[in-house]
Amino acid sequence: MGNFPYRLYLVTDEAACLGRDFFWVIEQAIKGGVDMVQLREKNLSDQAFLNKALLLKDLLDRYNVPLIINDNLPVAVHCGAAGIHVGNSDSPPTKIRLQHPDTKFLGYSIEYEAQLETEDARVSDYLALSPVYATNTKTDTVTEWKTEGIHRVRQITNKPLVAIGGINEANAASIITAGADCLAIVSAICSAENPALAAERLRNLIDRSMNSY
Ligand code: TZP
Ligand code: MG
Predict the structure, then answer these.
(1) Nearest-angstrom CA–CA distance, 93 and 49
(2) Is 152 noted as a catalytic residue in this protein?
(3) pTM above the 0.95 mark?
(4) For binding 2-[(2R,5Z)-2-carboxy-4-methylthiazol-5(2H)-ylidene]ethyl phosphate, which residues are annotated in this chain's numbering (predicted)?
């Protein structure tokens, strides 16, 4: 809703790239239609995470695609990222806003409906409904929003809603129709045989579903 123009959000997981070059996979995804990227690598040291963020920032700048950093404000600031994304067990959005007021995109994962009423949700720039469907990419999750949950949340808030978890070509259109503004995806792009084609097909599904209402 409003001024959130991003539609297809790649969330990284190098393991999901199946041994192919990490930056090649991401560049292919952008060529196919990914318009926002989150660096989310859970098994790196702080230094290795920062190095990857700096390299990724250079790549994304060439395509004018914003970089979001998962749960690491120092790295986000150091590499000049457009934003930061946090979940329930991370540093809360209210605290990040205070520490770094000019973060352009502060994203917050919503796992329970009660979170929508919080100050953390209020100060965030977009909310990620997590997960829409259970996924092997992240297994420590509590619920599945499904399309019914997205529809319910859409009635409650005007914030941009990013859907994440178990999204693929078979369910993308229905998630948009339920009220999501943007789809965030790991495996359906990173593990695809042809990441550019996978992104392009998902992007077409999103654009067509947006135009149909
Ligand atoms: N947060 C909620 S589900 C998820 C994250 C990071 C992983 C989504 O991965 P996939 O492979 O697109 O289901
Ligand atoms: Mg986290």
Answers:
(1) 21
(2) no
(3) yes
(4) 135-137, 166, 186-187
What are the residues facing 129 on neighbouring strands? 110, 163
Tokens for 15? 């393991």
d(CA 28, CA 71): 25
Return the residue whose CA atom lies nearest to atom 8 of ligand 1.
165
The tens digit of pLDDT for each residue in 54-71 reads 999 999 999 999 999 999
pLDDT at position 211 is 80
Long-range CB pairs of 3-6 (<8 Å, 24+ gap) are 4/125, 4/126, 4/160, 4/181, 4/182, 5/35, 6/35, 6/36, 6/66, 6/181, 6/182
- The ipTM estimated for the assembled molecules is 0.96
HSE-up of residue 93 (Cα within 13 Å, Cβ side): 27
Cβ burial of 43 (10 Å; 0-12, 13-18, 19+) is exposed
Which ligand sits closest to the CA of 133?
Answer: 1
